[in-house]
Amino acid sequence: MAEYSALFVEETTFYNRMVLGAFLPSRTWDPLPHFFQTWIRNYIGGILVYFLSGFFWSFYIYYLKRNVFVPKDSIPSTKAMLLQIFVAMKAMPWYSALPTVSEYMIENGWTRCFPRINDVSWSAYLVYLIAYLVIVEFGIYWMHRELHDIKPLYKYLHATHHIYNKENTLSPFAGLAFHPLDGILQALPHVMSLFLVPVHFKMHIFLLFMEGIWTANIHDCIDGKLWPIMGAGYHTIHHVTYRHNYGHFTIWMDWLFGTLRDPADDEPKKM
Ligand SMILES: [Zn+2]
Ligand SMILES: [Zn+2]
Asked: Which of 102, 150, 175, 249 is the most buried (most CB within 10 A)?
């Protein structure tokens, strides 16, 4: 385990040097403790993922493909998007604390994380990865559902994300527009999984940051119709009815627990 710990610290130190070195003069971050360097790196990483995915996706669907996916009069106003960016930016320093704490626990050998794929066999790697994803999917579904069902949680936390309750106010920038604690709670299953299944360290970090891209994608209101993916068609319904489609990557948890509503059922029936 001590050998694992050294490998994890070596890897995170490398990431810190690479990211901080690219954006900041070394005298500003070099004297800081490892934990703070990691936090700044996750903060920079979070901002990059959020803005790159938000800008590219908005540019593509609202400008390059104007009127193709989203009718011109349904494009959210700049003001709505700026408000979503403002909410997300207020929360970003707190979101960044989550991977920082999870990396700290990994480095200290408290989790079941492993540093290299050949620490386990390829078949075990795949089984663990699937188990990790199932736990994340189950965890996010129930966390999200409780954020609606437990009224104070809804009122003080999750309502912040639900002020965008009409189709044309949602944009890719709404993806991380949460109360900081709400965002952290919904990402928590990623950290809980580390204690339940062995998971490859890089994969954990990758999947955590992929959330930024995924949430941008499910808030663009475009119905991708790709079974069993929980695309924006489903998530838009969630923002309208508040009682359906709590799931995250796939529709399976909503199907299993009886809260699924298919966008196809809401379309006007063609005779
Ligand atoms: Zn919700
Ligand atoms: Zn949402």
From this structure: 175
CA 239 to ligand 2 centroid distance, Å: 6
Closest by CA to 84, choosing from 193, 195, 23, 175, is 175
CA of 14 to the centre of ligand 1 (A): 37
Tell me the pTM: 0.93
Distance 102 CA to ligand 2 centre (A): 24
Classify 225 in phi/psi space as left (phi over 0), alpha (psi -120 to 50) or beta: left
Counting ligands in written order, which one lies closest to the CA of residue 173? 2
Amino acid at 143: M
Rounded distance between C-alpha atoms, residue 182 and residue 251, angstroms: 21
Domain spans, the chain:
2-266
Nearest to 161 by CA among 137, 136, 142, 185: 185
How far away, in angstroms, is 238 Cα from ligand 2 center? 7
Q: Which ligand is nearest to the CA of 148?
A: 1
Query: Rounded CA gap, 115 and 200, in Å?
Result: 6
CA 192 – ligand 2 centroid, Å: 22
Reported as a single tens digit per residue, the pLDDT across 104-147 is: 999 999 999 999 988 999 999 999 999 999 999 999 999 999 99
User: Which ligand number lies closest to the CA of residue 246?
Assistant: 1
| pLDDT tens sequence across 46-99 | 999 999 999 999 999 898 888 888 888 888 999 999 999 999 999 999 999 999
Q: How far apart are CA 238 and CA 134, in angstroms?
A: 21
10 C-alpha to center of ligand 2: Å? 37
